[in-house]
Fold each of these.
Amino acid sequence: KVIEFHAQYGTKATCDAFGISKPTIYRWKGIYKDHGRDNISLIPKSRRPNTLRSPSWDIRIIQFIKDIRKDHRNLGKYKIKPLLDIYCNDNSIPQISVSLIGKIIKRENIYYQRRGRYYHNPNHKRPQISYKSRVKRSPRVSSQGHIEIDTIVRFVNGLKLYI
């Protein structure tokens, strides 16, 4: 639309109508011509950088975490930390934080399945858990039951009167 408007009405009118600068119009026009007047060429491209920073963790630390989680099924990052600190001091490796241990576990996918059933017998069913039946509504009142009344006691001429 902008390029067609520019061809018909000129640069100044296009800048005022769409609120775009003059260099932007000519840049879009150049891209449009270079790609054989294809509308798809004007769709904004991704601005993601070509080279991203990749984490550089020591391979020995990753291997230690893998080994310890294999031996002690899915040991948590808080319990791995003191053991890893001892290992790092022995091998003169800089220590890492608890959160970094969690990131390594997640990124390297260091999860091991717990042992489940070895044999599945299709005839064997687990026992059904019986739940107590719930009362949805309170029962209807069939009789009035007992009535509680407060009374006032007055003495008139030596007689006790209940009001």
Note: Residues 59-107 form one domain.
Amino acid sequence: MEINNHSFQNSWQKVLFPYFSYAFYFLGMGLISGSIVHMPLNPARYSLIMSIGIVLFVIASYLYEVKLNRRELSGTETVKFLLFSLFLSVGIGMMSGGIQHFDEEPAYASYLIPAGLVISLISFTVKHGIKPKLKEKLIAGVVILTLAFASWTYLQDLAKNPEVITHGHQEAEQHMD
């Protein structure tokens, strides 16, 4: 089987480029969510990890939307798209990290999860150019703020009752011994 330049280009365009764009998108998200929740443990280390995650997520968002989906954006639209991709990644990272590590930092996570919900919804709508009418905005706003407040209230109560919360990484380490 001979691999020529044309075969490699086809493979790159059809398989490798879309895969790496997609993988970097989710790798960036994972790094962001992990670093947000672990930030209190080592701010310098997790700021660096979060920065790498943000760069991966924003670049992958751009590549996926502009290069793969062939979305045409002006300079201003590109900056807006990248900025709200960043906010979206941080918002989703706040929810994901808060959920995964609630048992380790319940008070911190109880703020991360509802704030991430609000930030990610706003960022999602702006990033994707969704322009709801006033009535739709009000309904969406009431729903998301109600969910955020209800989750914050519930998570605050849960954080105050540590006996309800299961164990985190430490439990897994004990079972490995």
Note: The chain has six helices and no strands.
Amino acid sequence: MDNSEDLISALQTIQVLFNTLQIRYFIGGSVASSYHGAMRSTMDVDIVADIELKHIPTILETVANEYYASDIAMRNAVQRRSAFNLIHLPTSFKVDIFVSRGRRFDESAFSRATCCQLGTTENCVHVPIASVEDILLAKLDWYRAGGEVSERQWAMFRGL
């Protein structure tokens, strides 16, 4: 990842916020794939999180000055168990937050995620990262949901 400083900057507040609110979460997607060796440049980070409606006011208050956030999008995502995003204003880095669907797979993925350091010793965050196996299963799920036609998804799957 060639934009790791932006990633770290975008994650710092989220990491502290989720830990303070005791929201279970883990990093997935391209950032997790890159951490495990399938390098890919990205301008977003995917987070799976166990967010509930009760968390939304505190999240909005905490991120108000640093991120673009939509109260309506958050509420809809939590109610529908879908996704919303936050845009880190200083870097334009996008944080895609996928609300846990409560599936057995999600519960297993939470238990297998391991705390890892992203960034350098001087500028880093320690966050839970999805296991390689869970990244592969999630990529395969997306590949199948997309009709098994995405060469990019298949290439990433093979790269892991």
Note: The chain has one domain: 4-130.
Amino acid sequence: MTDLLIGVRCFIRGFSLMLTPGVRSWAFIPMILSALLYVGLIWAAAEWMGPHLDDLETSLDASLPSWLDWVSAILGPLLWILYWLAALLVVTFTFVIVASVVASPFNGPLAEAAEHALTAQAPPTTSWLRILTRLPGVLIQETKKVLYAVFWSIPFLLLLFIPIVGQILWFLWNAWITALAFTDYPLDNNGFRFADMRRMLRRRHWAAYGFGAAALFTFTIPILNLFAVPASVCGATLLWIEVLRPQAVAEGWHPPPTNGQPSDS
């Protein structure tokens, strides 16, 4: 149970780490891009919905009996209020997913900057050109994670038919895959392959469950979930530095050789 709390604490401390000088720029750039994307989509949807809402208002207006004429005065504003509430719900429940996709090219440099901050080294010199050159490797790594998650989600989905036990196992699986998804960035920066990452996390599975459960809980909280992705990357870097790396050193684990250089994908 100590490992469970360690995982939770690493995630929580990720929020303060993402505000560290040299780290925060890599945390906030994808957040700003995600916010701009949503602003553009909501504005475009409002432009498209405007005429349709006007038509709906006219149609409803015509169908109202005379004694409900007072409703006509509030019908238009009410429809727009419903639109903005629906937009808010969509943003709340999809922002983490969209932000994860937008942030994926930046998460490697973010984890690298966080690791340098934690180890008191100089910040890494990460350029936009390097981000672009890393992009194919990032896409391959993200595809591996998605395929792994989809493949193993199927049996856990079937287990949902078992009351209580199925729901508990489904939650633990989601906590595990969340921890794996974010610890991938610091471990990949240090040259470890996806299979190595899974083995390392299995050795400290309670820490993984604690980290993943805390992240999943945060993803559901409006406003706080806007910061969840960079905080998760920074928290996962803490988990690597304080838990997984000492274990790897103690057990003699080393990343596979890549011509003398750490993995850059």
Note: The mean pLDDT is 81.
